[in-house]
Amino acid sequence: CGNSCDAYRRVVQPWFGLRIGSLQAQKLGTRVELHNSFPGAHGIYVERVFDGSPAANSGTKVGDVITKLDEVPLFSAQEFHNLVLDKTESTMQHCDVMPFEVSVLRPGNSFDFCATINAEVIDMSKQNRWPVPKTKWLYPDNKYDDERSLV
């Protein structure tokens, strides 16, 4: 993250549109279902996929288990984030998407498949700016209609 800021004068962060978690942190019922479908499976659990996101467009669904990212086996969410940041720093180009190859297990299918998630690049330099932008507060009688800082 720091290297991309130094090299490109901006913080570059790919967006997948996923919320992921550790397999070991999932509810017992989920873990039993995964174990019955894929004994000895490892990877990260997809807890949420945002509509219209790169992950949703690739066919990734809630309940999937991502076992590999660009052919590297995954065992924790932290590994996933580290690999994403490493690839971002090593292949940074001025483009809007970054392709990531993932291997996915889907409970109930009893086989794994590969998908490409074309992560969108988010330029964090325009986020969290100071001072806080002004907003207009609207009240039904409009007697307090003034600009105040949003805090």
From TrEMBL:
It holds the Pfam family PDZ_2. Residues 17-74 form the PDZ domain. It comes from the Eukaryota. InterPro entries: PDZ, PDZ_sf. Transmembrane segments: none annotated. SMART domains: PDZ. PROSITE patterns: PDZ. PANTHER family: OS09G0436400 PROTEIN (PTHR47389:SF4). This is PDZ domain-containing protein. It comes from Triticum urartu (Red wild einkorn). The lineage of its organism: Eukaryota, Viridiplantae, Streptophyta, Embryophyta, Tracheophyta.
